[in-house]
Amino acid sequence: MSSLVPLEQVQAEILAAVPNLSATEVALTDALGLVLVEDIFTAEPIPPFANTAMDGYAVRAADTESASLTSPVSLRVVDEVPAGHVATQTVGPSEAIRIMTGAPMPNGADAVVMVERTHSLDPETVAVEHPATRGDHVRLAGGDLAAGAEVFSLGTELTAAHIGVLASIGVTQIRVIPAPRVGVLSTGDELIAAGPLAPGQIRDSNRPMLLGLVRESGFVPVDLGQVGDDEDLIVDTLRPALLECDAILTSGGVSVGDYDFVKAALNRLGSLEWRQVAIKPAKPLAFGVISGTPIFGLPGNPVSSLVSYELFARPALRQMSGHPILHRPTVSARAEHDFTRRPDGKVHFVRVQVRWSESGYVVASSGEQASNVLSATARANGLARIPDGNGVTAGDSVPVVLWRA
Question: Which terminus, N or C, of the chain has the lesser number of Cβ atoms within 10 Å?
Answer without folding.
Answer: N
